[in-house]
Amino acid sequence: SQQGEEDPQALSIQEGENATMNCSYKTSINNLQWYRQNSGRGLVHLILIRSNEREKHSGRLRVTLDTSKKSSSLLITASRAADTASYFCATDAEQAGTALIFGKGTTLSVSS
Amino acid sequence: NAGVTQTPKFQVLKTGQSMTLQCAQDMNHEYMSWYRQDPGMGLRLIHYSVGAGITDQGEVPNGYNVSRSTTEDFPLRLLSAAPSQTSVYFCASRERATYNEQFFGPGTRLTVL
Fold this sequence. Notes:
By secondary structure, chain A is mainly beta. Helices cover about 0% and strands about 55% of the residues of chain A. Chain A contains no helices and eleven strands.
């Protein structure tokens, strides 16, 4: 089964509002990554947070990681219509020589 | 750099046909992976490789074969296509080191009739 599960599955907001997506995972990890996918395109890396980090920022993105709860959140501040996309978390297991495992994603719609 | 390239972009097969989805990367990445994406299912790992000559199964390997004879190429073979294999297939690569992002190809949209 998939390692990560995002919540909510879909999110609709107005431009200027903040969007928060959550990810839960099952096993110990080295790092957790968030990716974005525009409709019909491949995934693009947004941000990586290591297992010993609790919070990380990149522009309008803020990611938190709680390894005790095996969960992460992605906050997009001051959303724009261009942020409309699907967002996926991906976990890199502690065990070496494994592949990234993705969740089912959150579909974000930002209306102007 | 071209990054990760996939061919073809679109393919229609009949049930029982075989074909190979091509994937190549020019970044000298050791790790390569194949995923399939279906509506509401996110990305599911089919097979992956941590270097030339080394492959392993992911979550949904049945009906697919892979090989990794070179660092650059990681083809995915459908042995006998079934309608359940209708999906969008993504190839991805990344460096061996732990804290590295993964790069994705543009995807192959496959329909099996």
